[in-house]
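Consider the following assembly input.
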Amino acid sequence: MTSESTLFSNRWLPVLLVSPFMLLIVLFFYVPIFQAFYWSFFLEQPFGGGSMFVGFDNFARVLSDREFWQAGWRTIIFMVTASSLAVLIPLILAVAADRKIRLSLPARNVLVWPKGVAGASIGVVFAFVFNPFVGLLAPLNKAFPGIWAPGIDGTDAFITLIAAHVWSGIPFNFVILLAGLQSIPRTMHQAAAMDGAGPWRRIFDVQLPLIMPQLFLTLVLEFTESITSAFALIDTITHGGPGGATTLLVYKIYKDGFSGYDLSGASTQTAILMVFVILLTAAQFVFLGRRINYER
Amino acid sequence: MNAIDTAIRAAAASITVKGLTKAYDPQTVVIPPMDVELKAGEFTVVLGPSGCGKSTLLQMIAGLERVSGGKILIGTREVQDLEPKHRGCAMVFQNYALYPHMTVFENMAYSLKVAGMAKAERAERVAAVAKMLGLADYLHRKPGQLSGGQRQRVAIGRAIVREPGVLLFDEPLSNLDAQLRHDMRVELADLHRRIGATTVFVTHDQVEAMTLADRILILNKGRIEQFDTPKAIYHHPASVFVAKFIGAPPMNILPVTGDGSALRLADGQVVAHAPLTGAFQLGIRPEDIVVDGKADGHAVKAALRFREDLGSHSVLAADLGGSIVRIATPFGADIADRLELLLNFPTSRLHLFDAATGRAIPGAQ
């Protein structure tokens, strides 16, 4: 192991170089998280003015709340469907682009652009795209009145959210997966072709096993991302409605905390969500990560 | 001899190439129309410098590269439009191209699995091949846990387990170090003697070609320079290109002029008597030149430039009429501190080539 002193002559220089970034994450991540955990054990006054230690009362209250479990359940459904689609669709696109099918070069560029669009903007665009009167599905409503009504039908609203989320997830996952596919040596395809495997068979026997590290990475990131980043989409497209059908945990936390002024309840839910994400990611590493062969 | 050997020997098919061409566009012709026939069970080495089209030829036989024109027959079957899997060829790649996520067993069994062979039969077949190649103890390992030589053997095993009619090798030894390359060469020769598969082996290494081949196909810019046994290619090169490509150090080529009775070097010295007129290229192998000794040729004077002592013999470089000639001479010749050498070119060892085309002049040797 090389010691730091061979890289930096002054031992405080590395600390100094890292400090701006450390300051940012401490200030905007660790402090609020610690605060949330702290508040979850106190009853906080809504407009400031002291707090009272209540032990696990907040947790008992939150965990016995039916709405919390509903929002949690929706979060899990959203996480599973949206993340799977947000990996599966880029995967299909990447396999196609890797095959050099027609128009794959322009498609490769076009597909990357959504990465530059902020979540809230995507929400505004999709609210318009899926608008039942003027959106893409409006003709469907003309033929079968009322079949697409995200403003009334919870399922339709949920589908809109998933579509927006998947769309915003395509660029990053596409780039990662395509890079993985392109790093597979050409002779590997040729060897499989000589062994008698057709193009479809090669996808499952050669390509997918060899991009497992990339698939794992995108899946882990998607799972965590889908839990938190859904906020911007919900806030712009559905506002949690109709009838709470799209109120995921992140949005419920925001509403409880900043509209309902239940700071303790919101903090408690944040703590619970946080622990859930940590456990989920750890589980992915334990059950999936170990089986992945990083060797080429 | 076991069942695998017999099956491969029985499956061995000839390869006939008729008017085969490859061109990426009218300006870039990789292989102009080529006709050649490789006999069943024969070990053919395709030899040439990089960019001569040898790998392209191999890939077209394998079906990995489309042909631009002409026919390829394996046995009596036309295969140029068939998918690789329907051609009955197996291939060993330069970088082995083993599946890193599969064990040695799975690597070797993959083609059988794709072909839909029953599990028990697969295991039996792989076990037989693994035993033959000394891989029986490594079947459960992944390629990443094997040495270069072992990976090479797995790649060969993966190819022969299907009992292919044709076995193709694309520079398979070039990734190995010198010692291992030598060992694998011996193993390959031994393997071919046992299984007798029709083998096409692409390389740019003349030593591999000389030691492994039944016949060597020498390519230059996509054209066949010569297709013959190693012995014939060494002793009767069909062109200057072949003469210079085979042998280490390569054959000396000197410009000579015939005045009707003798061949003269650029400085006027007579090297041989021949009733020829005009410009020629004279070839002589470094080991055929006699220093100081008596031989049936003419003696010419040359100035010694430097010598390399290789232990078993020395290689001298001498200036002869403005050209450098290399002479391989037995170790111990007392020439270390002399500047002028008397060289004798035995007439029976001379090769004569046309000055313009570089082709050998028949009967002139």
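The longest helix of chain B spans residues 178-195. Ask yourself how this observation constrains the way the partners meet.
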